[in-house]
Write a structure and sequence with these properties.
Elements lengths: L8 H6 L100 E6 L2 E2 L4 E7 L10 E4 L2 E2 L1 E5 L3 E5 L8 E9 L2 E11 L10 E6 L2 E2 L4 E7 L10 E4 L2 E2 L1 E5 L3 E5 L9 E8 L2 E11 L9 E6 L2 E2 L4 E7 L10 E4 L2 E9 L2 E5 L9 E8 L2 E11 L11 E6 L2 E2 L4 E7 L10 E4 L2 E2 L1 E5 L3 E5 L9 E8 L2 E11 L11 E6 L2 E2 L4 E7 L10 E4 L2 E2 L1 E5 L3 E5 L9 E8 L2 E11 L2
Parallel strand pairs: 2-9, 11-18, 20-26, 28-35, 37-44
Antiparallel strand pairs: 1-3, 3-7, 4-5, 4-8, 6-7, 8-9, 10-12, 12-16, 13-14, 13-17, 15-16, 17-18, 19-21, 21-24, 22-23, 22-25, 23-24, 25-26, 27-29, 29-33, 30-31, 30-34, 32-33, 34-35, 36-38, 38-42, 39-40, 39-43, 41-42, 43-44
């Protein structure tokens, strides 16, 4: 049986999008021996890796405008325009060096570039989590940095102005010594030979990707990949990326993989599809085209309220189709900075205004779903509420944390009554609660109606001094209390078999408060249940799934769902 990749759902979402498997002259120690992988032309542009100034992007013209040895197609600074304060430039020709010129404050052209001090650890295989230590990693434009190991871009997991957490990318050959660079709008920080890329352990056979079926569709399309060696020597199924976005693997064998087309920035985009195991990668260029049929309507942004306030203000956006056809809430930006969406509905979003803007700055607000983007220009103005910014409300806890509408709950925190003696407004999701009693550290409120049982909602506190919000703080339940007891699936026995075989699922809470037995699914196909207790289901393996396929097994009742990924293998 193939084990799922041993990472959390969050780390899977953040994992590096995998590129080509070779590097150019930026990687030291590359020669032209007959068995050297540098001789391969992985991007099919007519140049083998050792002679290609951009091996992961096809560039048959080999253009290099700034002469730095990195082709324009993959150079973070193709024209050599990014500078730092150490160069003594005077960007506005006023006789003052940029770093000492007050007129240049907040300008990318005059801002200091990043400084990279060290990389920890200094060696490891692709996929290693590395910490980059230095300064100036956040450009004054608010856009995050770009990190490269040699010419291969690394996925950033977390960042501050002095520290970056990244995944070492797949690409550089084993035992190669590569430069590490951090680029912002202010320049590029580089540590020459800062990282040694170790070999993958025990993996010799690279995957081969032969076909993608279908080759077009909306976000969420189930796509069948065919090829070879999709399961590495380490027993893990290949990672799959569409362009730069990782796809969810639904089932896998050594020759076929069923994956879900992930969300991409724009419909109509043709992207490469890449498979990567511990043995290497393979890619088909322009292998899948996103169409708009899955997300036919773009979002519409009509208004926001309030239209001014400090960072941290909770703003209500109203419009239409603010949840895309893929089920995902619209992303929201104030200017170029993304806001946190506290709660969402098709006609309304509740968001927290991001920080990083000076007072009196007026910015556009945009909403984006899989169907497109809408914008209100000059929609929000940043200002500071006098006397209030030092004491926004602070949420600490809610008791009880679940129950039906009408439940009286106690919210504890700090500064719940503001300087103007106004009691904080309390929102459950986007529904305002009635406050029964209040002190500076405690609110007694009634859970509002309008939200279905089983829904987790955020709790938000608002007063004239600011806001505080706790995501997924309260769960609505029905009278039976279903939300507190979802089923738990522990084992599937046997873990392999054919359609029509009888298998036993063990766990707990299979019978919900509504006295209905849990439904069992193999992949997406429902199984027939022969017998059920609260701790055991006896079911018949459903048909319609080819031999050699690994599928997840899920149990679902009125209280929720539990899933064991890749828990059953269909055998010939």
């Amino acid at each position: 049986m193939i084990e799922p990749h041993p990472t959390s759902a969050l780390s899977r979402r953040l994992r590096l999008s995998l590129g080509a498997a070779l590097v150019v002259g930026l990687v030291l120690g590359c020669d032209h021996g007959n068995d050297n992988p540098c001789l391969l032309d992985t991007d099919r542009d007519g140049y083998p890796a050792c002679d290609d100034n951009c091996p992961e992007a096809a560039n048959p013209d080999q253009l290099d405008a700034d002469g730095d040895g990195v082709g324009d197609a993959c150079d973070v600074d193709p024209l050599g325009e990014l500078t730092d304060c150490a160069d003594g430039l005077d960007g506005d020709d006023d006789g003052l060096v940029d770093c000492d010129d007050p007129d240049c404050e907040g300008s990318c052209a005059c801002s200091p570039g990043p400084l990279l001090d060290r990389v920890e650890p200094p060696s490891g295989p692709p996929g290693t989590v590395a910490t980059l230590v230095g300064s100036g990693f956040l450009g004054v434009d608010g856009v995050g940095p770009v990190v490269h190991f040699g010419s291969f871009e690394a996925r950033i997991l977390d960042l501050t102005d002095t520290q970056l957490i990244v995944l070492v990318p797949v690409g550089p050959p084993p035992d190669s010594l590569v430069d590490v660079t951090v680029g912002t709008c202010g320049g590029i920080g580089r540590l020459a030979g800062a990282y040694t890329v170790d070999d993958f352990l025990g993996c010799s056979l690279a995957p081969s990707l032969e076909s993608v079926d279908p080759d077009s569709g909306p976000v969420g399309t189930a796509v069948l990949l065919r090829g070879a060696a999709f399961i590495g020597d380490d027993g893990l199924a290949a990672h799959v990326t569409f362009g730069l976005t990782e796809a969810r693997v639904l089932a896998a064998t050594t020759t076929e993989m069923l994956v879900e087309a992930p969300t991409v920035p724009l419909d109509g985009t043709s992207v490469s599809v890449t498979v990567a195991t511990c043995g290497g990668t393979d890619r088909l260029d322009e292998a899948f085209t996103y169409d708009v049929t899955g997300c036919p309507r773009p979002p519409v942004l009509d208004s926001l309220e309030p239209t001014s306030g400090p960072a941290g203000t909770v703003v209500t956006l109203r419009g239409a189709d603010l949840i895309g056809a893929d089920g995902l809430a619209a992303s929201v930006r104030f200017g170029l900075t993304e806001a946190v969406v506290v709660d969402s509905a098709a006609e309304q979003l509740l968001v927290v205004v991001p920080d990083g803007f000076p007072d009196d700055t007026t910015v556009s607000v945009t909403v984006t779903t899989c169907g497109g983007t809408d914008m209100l220009a000059g929609a929000f103005t940043f200002d500071t509420l006098v006397g209030c910014t030092s004491t926004p409300p602070v949420f600490e806890s809610v008791e009880p944390s679940e129950g039906p509408a009408g439940t009286v709950v106690t919210i504890t925190g700090q500064d719940l009554i503001d300087l103007c003696d106004s009691v904080s407004v309390v929102l459950f999701g986007m529904e305002e609660a009635v406050v029964i009693d209040a002190t500076a550290t405690q609110l007694l409120v009634v859970v509002p109606e309008g939200i279905p049982a089983g829904t987790e909602v955020s709790l938000t506190l608002l007063n004239c001094c600011g806001t505080d919000s706790e995501p997924a703080a309260f769960t609505y339940s029905d009278a039976a209390g279903c939300t507190s007891t979802p089923p738990i699936l522990d084992t599937v026995d046997p873990g392999e078999g054919r359609a029509g075989d009888v298998v036993t699922l063990t766990g707990s809470r299979f019978i919900g408060p509504c006295d209905e037995a849990a439904i069992a699914r193999f992949g997406l196909t429902e199984a027939v249940t022969l017998d059920a207790t609260d701790t055991q289901l006896i079911v018949v393996v459903p048909g319609g799934i080819p031999a050699g396929t690994f599928v997840s097994v899920a149990v679902e009742n009125c209280c929720g769902t539990d899933t064991l990924p890749m828990a059953f293998e269909y055998v010939p």
